[in-house]
Amino acid sequence: MSTELKTSPVVVDTANSPAARLRPVPLNAVELSDTFLEPRRRINRDQTIPSQYRHIEDTGRMDNIRRAAGKKKVDFKGWHFNDSDIHKWLEAAAWDLASHPSPELVELIDRVGVEIADMQQPDGYLHSYFTFEREPERWTNTRFMHELYVAGHFIQAAVAHYRASGDTRLLNVARRLADHICDTFGPAEAGKKAEADGHPEVEMALVELYRATGERKYLDEASFFVEVRRGMGRMNGAEYELKPYREYDRMVGHAVCAVYLAAGVTDVALETGDQTLVAALERLWDHMVTKQLYVTGGIGSRYENEMFGKDYELPSDRAYTETCAAIGNVMWNHRMLALDGQARYADLLEHTLYNAVLPGLSLDGQLYFYQNPLADDGTHRRQEWFGCACCPPNVARLLAQLPGYFYSSDSDRLYVNLYAEGKLDWSLEGQPVRLTTNTRYPWDGDIAITVESAGNFELNLRIPAWCEGVIGLEVAGEQYHGQLVPGTYASIRRDWQAGDTVRLHLPMAVRRLEAHPYSLETWGRVAFMRGPLLYCFEQTDNPGLDLRDLVVPEGTVFAAEFEPDLLNGVVTLRGQAKVAAPGPGWQDRLYRPLTTAVESAQPQTVELKAVPYYAWANREPGQMLIWLRAR
Predict the structure, then answer these.
(1) In whole angstroms, what is the distance from residue 22 CA to residue 12 CA?
(2) Residue 2 confidence (pLDDT)
(3) What percent of the chain has pLDDT over 90?
(4) Which residues make beta-bridge pairs with 503?
């Protein structure tokens, strides 16, 4: 067993994973300088992370930690799992440190880390709620009390901190905690608790701790938690615990739990090569994207238990689509991409990031959505914080670790998964690889990648699945003669010379989408995308109109226009629609005999304007719709 510690700021370290098809590229090898994602990351650094810490202090979360350490005599405040919000914030701060070293942030992380470490019990247990008068209740209700979930978030934060800084202090606390978990949970015949947490999370954390330390028992413990779920029964709709994971053919239960578990199972499969787990994961993914996925990339249609609904049950105004579930979907697809290298996972990762994660945070980085409906009457607004504040620090940590998602590698092959202006400074098989990317993506489909260092390697460019029309690719002034198939990678192997430029053109026509006929609430309606971005219609851009009355006939053309002063700069869509309001025959009626009689004059034609869905609800309240009537 190797216990040598090696540090590199990678989000999911598959560098030595036996079953991994792709290897990670660290955050600090990637410098983003675009005008779309990097400004969001800058706001995350300057506004979101600092304001979240103030909320953590103001709501008593840090005082709970101090109470558990014996430093402050106060009553415990909030949910029993509130420590997890601190841990996710700590992970966000650590990942930001990897990209942008800051003495002030180092000092704050150190201070918070010391306070957390001071509450650790002699046996390694780490949880502020189950101390003093509640200590006898430790591990007595793992289904509902989320102790392992909280532990998992601390372990992930500690690994992130270690990889970002090389500092092992928090990692050592995490190892003591993980050792305690390994001593407590395991086969019943070994005298241990044969149980798993009702909220999966610790599985990912234990595998990542194994990757950071080489301690095999952490991987074995993660595998145990995957296996022990069989037959545990139902918890708040958590149907994923009713039978062995390998037997499932659809995503069920609490959406966040389901994708966190899927991500953890993928981590186990990456390390063990268990093909029965891989088959289950692929089966679940296929079913989710064809029958359970919102057009935003969001998941979880029911407010009831925050869970997946039936197949095609995808209501718009009652969509739950929790921000954390979208983030979990990104995390799972990132791991599935590492597992087999198929571009479809990068496609869904990007789609979910842009259209289901980014809406969860206001443009100023201060307000949050917990739920993300696809239609609204003007009453759903972002909040500063929540009693159950899982989503805010989750968004912050994803934005902080985002550069780690852009590239992957395999031997002397480099994969470009996401596009943004910036630079890469990395190496393949010991050979320096430096790239400069110039693009206005996602507003523009022209991408120029210049190779700054000579060498022989293979460059793989993702051709997004959304592409329609003619895709162009030019390599050092010559046309690319291979196939350019949407939803795959285009491979270019050559002896690169410094200054060689690859020019990729992705067509950015406005696309009309329709939903499956079984999706009853959206059948007969149309939605609009341009590039990777989904659009919506807000009343503030369409004053005097009831968006429910609008009909967009087939053949309607929408024009794209960049508006630099709107919503921090967006491409808007403009077109025409017909106004088809209910006629006088519906006055004071909810139902009536079916009639074919014409009730109104020729429908009025009006001008329409749409904005990217991620930017909605950043102005005055009003109606919002993604899906408009097609007839």
Answers:
(1) 11
(2) 37
(3) 94
(4) 448, 474
Tally Cβ neighbours within 10 Å of residue 266: 28
Phi, psi of 494 (to 5 degrees): -165, 170
Q: 501 with 520, same domain?
A: no
User: What would the pLDDT profile of 107-120 be if each residue is shown by its tens digit?
Assistant: 999 999 999 999 99
Q: Which residues are catalytic?
A: 306, 390
- CA 461 – CA 417 distance, rounded (Å): 7
Domain boundary among 481, 505, 529: 505
Residues 536 and 626 sit within 8 Å (Cβ to Cβ): yes
Which of 268, 163, 184, 172 minimizes the C-alpha distance to 226?
268
pTM passes above 0.90: yes
DSSP code of 582? -
Q: Which helix (H) or strand (E) holds 335?
A: helix 323-340
Distance, CA of 502 to CA of 253 (rounded, Å): 45
How many structural domains comprise the chain?
A: 2
Half-sphere exposure of 410 (CA within 13 A, CB side): 17
What angle do the packed helices 391-401 and 49-58 form, to 10 degrees? 150
* Contact between residue 474 and residue 503 where contact means Cβ atoms under 8 Å apart: yes
Q: Which long-range contacts (CB under 8 A, 24 or more apart) does 243-247 make?
A: 245/277, 245/280, 246/276, 246/277, 246/279, 246/280, 247/280
Asked if residue 395 is part of any domain, the answer here is no
What's the token pair of residue 391? 């989503």
Show Cβ contacts of residue 283 under 8 Å, excluding neighbours closer than 6 positions.
248, 249
Nearest to 288 by CA among 340, 328, 339: 328
Q: Examine residue 357 and state whether it is found in any structural domain, yes or no.
A: no
Residue with tokens 């389901």: 258
In a domain, 302, yes or no: no
Domain that holds residue 539: 512-629
546 and 596 both lie in a single domain: yes
Show the low-confidence residues of the chain (pLDDT under 50): 1-3, 237
Among 454, 474, 505, give the residue marking a domain's end: 505
